Structure formats: structure tokens, C-alpha cells
Amino acid sequence: MSEQEIKVPDLGGADEVEVIEIIVSEGDSVAEEDPILTVESDKASVELPAPAAGKIAKITVKVGDKVREGDVVGVMAADGDAGSAEQSAPAEESEEKVEAAPEEPKPAPKKSGGSRKETIKVPSLDGMENVPVIEVNVSEGDTIEAESALVTVESDKATMEVPSPYAGKVGKILVKEGDKVSEGDELVELTIEEEGGEKSPAAEPEKPAASEQPAQPSAKPEAAPQPQGSTYEPPAPGTKVHAGPAVRKLARELGADLTRVKGSGPKGRIVKDDVQAYVKSQLQQSQQGGSVGTGSGIPGVKLPDFSQFGDIEKESMSRMMAATATNMQRSWLNVPHVTQFEDADITDMEDFRKSQKAAGEKRGVKMTPLPFLLKACANALAELPQFNVSIDMEKKEVIRKKYIHIGIAVDTPHGLMVPVIRDVDKKGLWELAAESAELAKKARDKQLKPAEMQGACFTITSLGGIGGTAFTPIVNTPEVAILGVSKAAMKPVWDGKEFQPRLMLPLSLSYDHRAVNGADAARFTSALAQSLGDIRTLLL
Ligand code: COA
Fold first, then answer.
1. I need a labelling partner for 420 at 20 to 30 A (CA). Which of 35, 68, 160, 357 fits?
2. Domain boundary residue among 180, 195, 210?
3. Cα–Cα distance between 225 and 324 in angstroms, integer?
4. If you measure from the C-alpha of residue 371 to the centroid of ligand 1, how many angstroms do you get, rounded to a whole number?
5. Which domain holds residue 130?
6. In a shared domain, residues 176 and 256
7. Which of 349, 370, 441, 483 to probe ligand 1 with, by most ligand atoms within 8 A of CB?
8. Where is the Lipoyl-binding domain (predicted)?
């Protein structure tokens, strides 16, 4: 064993940097290149690696200290003879760990009013080339602030957001996930509003540390419905994660979502202890039957090599498919589901609906069964407010909503989307028909804004235009119920004297049995059947 000083390596041009995290403790055994501590300049986070394998004898700096290249930050007892007291971490090692910072935001553009288009390009990546885009953080049509992350790139050593130098509206996106980019490559087209030149870029926006990464992609128009664990609180749009590569690596290894981890370091920086504490608390909660986990402890499904059975082809999931899959699984595993079935006699409703055909043509609106369903659900939610809640199992609270916004599941070529109609109780059938048609079109054209997919109290998923007799929809948590609608069919219904041919609409109400009891579910579907059976009651 030989004693070896741990020195600050070449900092890639940075002069003085601050120690923001001490990763090891005295007495810890480390492998060569294990991170010892993290320093941060205004541009980048750098982890100082162990110059050799061995035991940490002493750390001679503390969080907040300022250090420069060549400063001694600790002493270690290196295994074997490999180390020498003079040896410090090789410069190129540390440079590899530097998370490149983007270039300075550009100066203000032209001062004239109106708008102009700008194609935003990849800034200097500090020598990195062909770096994969791991996340596209914006969508076409998004309105963004200067400094909002456009994409996130990741080399094998560093993660970096590429921020927009200007505020504006995102036009065409010129890269996709998996693309490899280098400095100068075009990323997105941005329309920049120039209200007298006052509004555009942040004059001197603070440059983000390169290691910052958005909490999650800014809510995307194509985002899937947001079923989440009942205690899930989505991070505020634009929330940044402040953590170095070693912490990110640890989080990846442990499967921890850094957007949910509270940082205890300087400026809210997430340190390793935070990740470990978070994972521990999640484990404890799931062991205690808490509602946060997504089924930990459930054995995963092992896939065989399908090519042994015949030809196959592999394709990456789209972001939307992956998000929907995760959300469905989260809802399914967190929510004790029960489905209540009912048939509504819509013979009269259909007669009325068809009688409105000419009126609809005049208005340019098609009256389908959906507006009646929306109205009937709004009435039932008002009558049985225990369905218009969300539950917080951590705080043991029921959150009652005083508004009635209903999501409608829309089948689109790119996946399932759930736009939300607000204040359904205050709208008439024509208004609901027009709005649902417009939102469904927007969903199919990928034109929905994030706000148009948020805030639902309840969801309707209608497969009636396609077929089927019944199904068990998955509750779109944190809502507590969802109505599935299947295809109406003529059935013989006994009226006390004889069978009558009646048009019956199958309804399937899935609900979260923690929030709603079975008797109330039966009341809810009966209320629906009643209002759809006699639509005059919708007026009451
Ligand atoms: N029974 C019988 N026919 C029905 C029906 C029902 N329950 N619901 C709709 N129809 C009829 C309509 O009247 C219309 O017929 P018409 O042209 O003769 O009048 C036809 O089916 C098509 O209706 P549609 O265009 O689907 O309109 P809609 O207002 O009923 O539904 C959406 C709109 C957006 C809900 C629907 O288009 C959609 O996307 N459904 C799928 C949702 C989904 O995928 N859910 C799965 C989630 S897991």
C-alpha cells in the first residue's frame, strides 16, 4: 500500500470550482476511477475520480470549498504499488466526465415587432460528436421560454440538455430520439414573437448546469392519459433535475426516478444519499402496502428468443406507447378495480338523436350518442359526488372536486389519447357534440395541447362505434371511475306482458374500490341507465 494524494485534475478551462458533494467517506474502499467528490463551475459538474484503487484515508475539503487544478482534496492508501504520491487523476479521465455545457444563449434578436423563424442548432458539445438524443423535450406547437430544454443528449459519460436560446413557439422538430447529433446540426424550428423586441429571449438567462435534465419531457400533446398511482404527483412542467452523472447512474441502476427525489445538496442538488433514502422509502412503502410502488416484488416476464420459432422484427416503442403502457400498468397495479355492468334502453334516445340529423347538418355538427353519455355522466357525477374525487393514500385524504370535467378516450393512429371536456354539466348537447368532435379531430391530428388533456374527473371510453358487448376499462388514475361503452344492440326486453324489441346500450363502469363502494357503483350505472332511457331527465 502507498499513500497517494488526490488532486484536482485539469478542469477543462474552468478556473476555480466549488465542491458541491463529497461522495465517499474516510475509510471507504474505492476502485480506480470511482468518483470521490463532485465540483461544479457555472458551466459543468465534474466528478473527481480516484486515481487508483484503495482506501480513502482522508478528505481534506468540505462542501462549499473552492478548489483549483492541482489542489489536494484528500489522501488515499492505494492498493499495490500502482500509485505514486505525485500522481493525480489524469486530465483526460476527468475531462471525459465533464458534462459539457451549452453555449451562451444568443443575444437578443432583431428589435422589430412581428415574428420570425429561427432554426435552432446544436451548440458546442465540448468536443463530443455524434451524441445520441435520448429525449426530445418539446413538441410541435409548444410555447416555450428561453432556456427551456429542447432535447437531451447523452454520451457514455455525460448528460446534457440543449436549451433554447429564445422564447417562442416550436415549429418543426428536426431530430428524433436515437438520432446522433454534433455541433451545428439543426434541432427545431422556432417562431419567435418580437413584440417590439421586448419579449424574445431572456436577456441573459442563467446558463443551466449541463447535468440538469428536465423532470420529464414537457407535457407533450401526444402524452398518454395520465393514470398514475394515487399518491403520484407529477412534477411541475419544466422542473429540473440537478444531479451529477454518478448520481444519475446510481438512480438508473436502482430504477429511481430522479424527478421524484428531493435534493438536499446546494441549490437543491440531488446527492447519492438522497437517491438511497428515496429508494429506501419506496421499498418501505410498498412493503407496508403503500400505493406508490408499481408492483415491486412481482416477477417480471422473461421473454424467450422468439426468432427460434420463426421470423421476427423488432421495433422501438414510441414514447406514447411506452408512456401509455407504464400508466396502464401503474393504474392496474395500484387500483383495486371492480367493473359494474348495466344495459341502458336507448330506443327513445336514438329516435330523438336521429330526428336531429337535419338540424345537425344545418349546424355542421354530427350528433352521436357521445354527447348524451357525457351529459348523463355529468348528471350522475353531480348526483353521486363520491365519484368525483381523487384519493391520497399517503395523507389519507379524499379530494372532492367542485367541477365536472370529463375525458374522452380517442382512438388515433398513433395511440390512445384522452382530451378533456371542461364543465360538461354547464354545456348543452350541441355544444358537447361540437366540442367532442373537435377534440377528437385534434387528437387524431396530434394537435392537442397539454392543457386539453388535463384535469379530468372521470373518463368515458366508447367502443360503441366499433363493436363488442362489454369490457373492463382501466381506471385513469387519479380519477376513480371510468365508463366503458359498447355497441348498442336490439334485444328482447320483457315489459311485464310481452317481449319488446328495444335498443340496449351496454355500459361497463370500472371503479376504484378504495374510493367507491359497490352499492354506489350500482346506483351510478342505474342513474345512467335512467337518464339515457328517458333523456328528458337530462334537463332536470
Ligand atoms: N352503439 C352503437 N353505435 C354507436 C355507438 C354505440 N355505443 N357509439 C357510436 N355509435 C355510432 C355512431 O352513432 C356513428 O354512427 P352513424 O355514423 O351511423 O351515426 C358511428 O358509431 C361512429 O361514431 P364515432 O365517430 O365513433 O363517434 P362517437 O361520438 O360515438 O365517438 C370517439 C367518438 C372519439 C369516442 C370515438 O371515435 C373513438 O375514438 N372511440 C374509441 C375509443 C377507444 O379507443 N377506447 C379504448 C380505450 S381502452
1. 357
2. 195
3. 7
4. 11
5. 115-195
6. no
7. 370
8. 3-77, 117-191
